Amino acid sequence: LDSFLRDRLTSDDFLHRRIAALRGKGVHGIPKLLGVIEGGEITRGGQSFLEREFLRCLAAAGIPRPATQAVISRRRDRLIRVDFWWPGTPIVAETLGYRWHSTTAQIASDTARLNRLLLDGKIPLQFTYDRVMHDPDGATAEVAQALRPYLRTAS
After folding, report:
1. DSSP string, 9-37
2. pLDDT tens-digit readout, 131-151
3. Is the pTM for the entire model greater than 0.90?
């Protein structure tokens, strides 16, 4: 479902209209489909399995939903986009899967991005696949700690 929505092969509106049209006696699977759609709301915007899993962890920990794939800076003629940003705060987070963050060139690019974020006054947090999958409580505790001073002033 995430892939179909991301690739614009379907839309939320279409899915909800079809569900409404199909509801009735003898039609099975509608509650399960609604559960998938509702679960997808939590992870909407994540562009990889790891990003969607991180969004699930944040929701389970009660952490406010961040903006996803947010453009927050510019480096020469390139936009700096982060996986997650909490608007109104300098807190950004990146999930680092092995596929996109393992070669020398990728690490060099990641380092330049990290430095640019720091120079722009952002507080970047980075979480590896292992951290998200095997220590979600520790990862979300760090996010909560970073957000705490900014969320307190917003209330």
Report:
1. SS-HHHHHHHHHHH-STT--SHHHHHHHH
2. 999 999 999 999 999 999 998
3. no
